[in-house]
Amino acid sequence: MAKIDLDSLSIEELAALRDNAIEKLAEKVAARQAELEAELVKLSVYGKPGKKTAAAPAPAKGKRSDEVARKSDETKETIAKETIAKEAVGKEAVGKAA
Q: Using an 8 Å Cβ cutoff, are 20 and 12 in contact?
């Protein structure tokens, strides 16, 4: 992975980096969720007879689904910000050590 000098980036570039990181995280989470749901379907064959297993919970309705989506976006953004901040702190520590 290419190293990025965060100190040299403008605010707009940092915001774009954050947005790209959030988007990529969302894609990877969705792909992994699909993999796990497919695995769950395969494993449901070994479940109790007559018992229906759900691969995913039913989607929320109305305002609740909007709230869930907003919280999900906030969580993704928080994770991305924490990741970027940790990388920045790590790079600062490496720079000071050198």
A: no
